[in-house]
C-alpha cells in the first residue's frame, strides 16, 4: 500500500491522498529517454503502474531525488519529457510535475488519466487551476516553509542585494584590470528594505536581514492585531499565538496593500516575495516603479 499526504489543493478543493490501485510486482526500467520509456510502458502492466511525468530538463535535481526516493517501489514510474513533447504524452500519466511548463486548458484537456498536477515548489502561475478543477484534477504545491526553499530564496535575495550594492560586475572588471579601490560600493547598513509579501520567504528574509542593521518595512494581507487593555497597561496582541507575534515583530513598520506606495517611497530596496497570479500581477504597475525612482 502506498500513502501520500498532499497539501491543500488550489482551486477550491481539498487535496487528498492519491489512492493507488492494488499492485502486482511488474518489472520496471526507468529511462529518461522517451522512446525507451514508451517501450517500457508497453511491457509494463498498464493498470498497475502509477506514472509520474516531470516536464522538461530544467531543475534536474527534482526528478533525480524523486527517482532515488521511489527506486524500491516498482509500481511508480518516473519519466522526463522535453517541454515540447508534454502535450503529446501527458495523456499517459497520472501525476504531472510541471516545473516551468505552462499547463493551459488545451494541454490539461489531453490529460485523460491525470489525478494530480504538482509543482516542485510553490509557483503555480503557469497552471490553469480552473481548467484542472473542471476536469477533476487536483492541483498542489509544496510550501517553502517545510522544504527549506524559503531559506534558499531568502539567502539568494541577500546575495543579489549585496552584489548590486557592491557593484559586482564593475568590481570584476576593475580587478581584471588590476585597479583597486573601485568602484565604491554601498553597505546594507542603514538601508530601508521593503519586503512586499510577508509569507515564508519574507519571514526568512527578515530574520537574516536583521543583523545587517537595516530598517525593515513589510506589507501583508493580515497581521496579528493589537487591542488596548482595559486596565490601561498598554496594548496587547489579539493573537493567541506567540510565534505569530514574534514573526510580526520582525519588521519595524508593517501595513496592508494600502501602504504600498507609501512604503515604496521610503524604500532603498524592494524585495517581492509573492507568487505571480491574477491578484498579485497588478501590484507593481509602472507608477509603483516611478515612485521608487522619484523618491
List keywords for this structure.
single chain; 295 residues; alpha/beta; Rossmann fold; 2 domains; four-stranded parallel sheet; 11 strands; 15% strand; globular; disordered N terminus
Brief synopsis:
Residues 1-29 are annotated as: Disordered. The protein has 295 residues and is of the alpha/beta class.
Secondary structure topology:
Blueprint: H1 34-43, E1 50-55, H2 60-69, E2 76-81, H3 86-89, E3 95-97, H4 105-110, E4 116-118, H5 129-134, E5 138-140, H6 149-165, H7 168-176, E6 192-196, H8 200-209, E7 215-219, E8 226-228, E9 235-237, H9 242-248, E10 253-255, H10 260-266, E11 269-272, H11 286-294
Parallel strand pairs: 1-2, 1-3, 3-4, 4-5, 6-7, 6-11, 7-10
Antiparallel strand pairs: 8-9
Helix pairs in contact: 6-8, 10-11
Could you walk me through the main structural features you see in this protein, from its secondary elements to its overall organization?
With 295 residues, the protein is of the alpha/beta class. The chain has two domains: 109 residues, Rossmann fold; 107 residues, NAD(P)-binding Rossmann-like Domain (Rossmann fold, 3-Layer(aba) Sandwich). The chain has a five-stranded parallel beta sheet. The longest helix has 17 residues. The relative contact order is 0.09. The N terminus is likely disordered.
Amino acid at each position: 500500500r502506498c500513502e501520500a499526504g498532499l497539501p491543500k489543493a488550489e482551486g477550491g478543493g481539498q487535496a487528498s491522498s492519491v489512492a493507488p490501485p492494488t499492485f502486482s510486482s511488474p518489472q520496471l526500467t526507468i529511462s529518461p529517454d522517451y522512446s525507451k520509456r514508451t517501450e517500457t510502458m508497453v511491457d509494463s502492466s498498464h493498470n498497475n503502474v502509477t506514472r509520474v511525468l516531470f516536464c522538461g530538463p530544467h531543475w534536474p535535481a527534482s526528478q533525480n531525488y524523486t527517482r532515488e526516493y521511489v527506486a524500491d517501489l516498482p509500481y511508480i514510474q518516473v519519466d522526463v519529457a522535453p517541454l515540447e513533447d508534454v502535450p503529446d504524452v501527458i495523456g499517459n500519466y497520472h501525476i504531472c510535475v510541471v516545473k516551468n511548463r505552462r499547463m493551459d486548458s488545451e494541454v490539461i484537456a489531453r490529460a485523460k488519466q491525470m489525478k494530480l498536477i504538482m509543482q516542485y515548489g510553490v509557483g503555480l502561475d503557469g497552471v490553469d487551476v480552473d481548467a484542472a478543477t473542471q476536469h477533476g484534477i487536483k492541483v498542489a504545491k509544496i510550501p517553502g516553509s517545510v522544504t527549506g526553499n524559503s531559506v534558499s530564496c531568502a539567502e539568494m535575495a541577500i546575495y543579489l542585494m549585496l552584489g548590486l550594492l557592491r557593484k559586482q560586475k564593475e568590481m570584476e572588471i576593475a580587478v581584471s584590470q588590476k585597479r583597486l579601490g573601485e568602484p565604491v560600493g554601498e553597505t546594507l547598513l542603514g538601508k530601508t528594505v521593503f519586503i512586499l509579501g510577508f509569507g515564508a520567504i519574507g519571514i526568512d528574509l527578515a530574520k537574516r536581514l536583521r543583523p545587517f542593521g537595516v530598517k525593515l518595512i513589510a506589507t501583508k494581507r493580515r497581521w496579528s492585531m493589537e487591542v488596548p487593555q482595559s486596565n490601561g497597561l498598554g496594548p496587547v496582541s489579539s493573537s493567541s499565538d506567540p510565534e505569530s507575534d514574534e514573526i510580526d515583530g520582525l519588521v519595524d513598520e508593517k501595513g496592508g496593500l494600502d501602504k504600498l506606495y507609501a512604503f515604496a517611497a521610503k524604500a532603498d530596496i524592494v524585495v517581492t516575495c509573492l507568487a505571480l497570479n491574477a491578484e498579485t500581477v497588478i501590484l507593481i504597475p509602472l507608477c509603483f516603479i516611478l515612485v521608487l525612482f522619484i523618491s
